[in-house]
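Sample pair:
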Amino acid sequence: MRALATGAWVVTGAASGFGREFAVRLARKGAALALFDRDADGLDATRAMLPGATVHTAAVDLADDEAFAVAVKGAREALGPLAHCVNSAGILRFGSVESMPVRDFRLLSEVNYLGSVKVAQAALPHLREASATGRSVMLFVASVAGLRAAPEVGGYSASKYAVVGVARALRDELLGTQIDVRALCPPAGDTPMLRGQGPLPPIYKVSATLTADRR
């Protein structure tokens, strides 16, 4: 396997949770970072955790079809080549399939599934450019819920199944290139996204949740 391509890492969902943990660990390795999230204050807090690192940040909402592509162009101008991308942005909603409002299903799909598509489409031209210097990584943070559904998690699970499906299709489409497509499917994490949901469905009682830095 070729060495990693030279260039910055794009990380979405970087204001908290898994995205923040990716940013911290990559910064420790000396990576330049383009960090995105809709939470501007959270991004500032993440940036403060990365003293000495080369960091570009921008607040962007993946529900906006054009915003991320514009933001990535700004990161390219600020940091130079963008070689790798970690899409960790996502939202969570609970409710039974029978009762959860359709608007929540739509929002989960818009951010988790279509957001992943928007990130990939905006980042891949830059990864192709950088892959001339080595292997570029395109990582989708999905969920174990994208492999096994559970009661009251149907809308979220469906959106994450879609993320896994897109990642698998894209991996096959890019066979023979130097772009390495992966999907990470972690179990439930003790993140602000989960803590903000109130009472948890029964599936969350099966095992303890761990903070992102312990995974």
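The CA atoms of residues 117 and 193 lie 21 Å apart.
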